[in-house]
Design goal:
This protein has 178 residues and is of the alpha/beta class. It is 32% helix and 25% strand. The chain has six helices and eight strands. The chain has an eight-stranded mixed beta sheet, with helices on both faces. The longest helix is centred in the N-terminal third of the chain and has 15 residues. The chain starts with 6 loop residues before the first strand and ends in a 5-residue tail after the last helix. The model has no long low-confidence stretch (mean pLDDT 88).
Length: 178
């Protein structure tokens, strides 16, 4: 994964692999450029269920350990879903329901999973941190009507120099056979 934009918006259909692709990119970037990286779900409990404790139905492995294999991990803290990599980079799963608890060092990267369901105040709170660190922000979501995610998607499409934007339907990916 090579970073080409400071902002990314991916509006993909359900089960398209949004989190897997984003987690792989976050790991790759953390290994290349040590710093703090966050992956934010609408609710912290969802992050624990889907990624931290979640098991990939295809492989039978914990999703977090697929994204961050044990040989690159220095330590893991289960209570706050925190990983420190061997190179000093850190990764943490957080929730937009508790965004105001994310104080401390500014992240080099943050990804919002299911952005359409997330609290948009989280981005308002985190964006100065990202600007200060020169970092990136990724917003991955499924479409959910007229809301802050749709407004952001429209802005992203109008600003291709700043934003990478991609929208994928089931027909685009061929994910489901007819």
């Amino acid at each position: 994964a090579q970073r080409t934009h400071d902002r990314l918006m991916a509006v993909w259909h359900r089960r398209a692999g949004k989190d897997e692709v984003t987690l792989d990119a976050e790991r790759t970037l953390a290994l290349k450029d040590p710093g703090t990286y966050w992956h934010c779900f609408p609710e912290q409990k969802q992050a624990r269920k889907a990624i931290w404790n979640g098991v990939d139905g295809h492989t039978g492995k914990r999703r977090i350990l697929q994204a961050f294999p044990e040989p690159i991990i220095k330590r893991m803290q289960d209570d706050d879903m925190f990983i420190e990599l061997n190179n000093g980079a850190t990764f943490q799963l957080i929730g937009s329901d508790r965004y105001d608890s994310t104080v401390g060092s500014g992240p080099k990267g943050i990804a919002y999973s299911e952005w359409a369901l997330s609290n948009p105040a989280a981005w308002a709170y985190h964006s100065p941190m990202i600007r200060e660190s020169g970092g990136y922000a990724a917003f991955i979501t499924t479409p959910r009507g007229n809301n802050h995610a749709k407004t952001m998607a429209e802005r992203a499409q109008r600003n291709p120099a700043t934003w990478f934007f991609q929208q994928l339907s089931i027909e685009d990916t061929g994910a489901l056979s007819t």
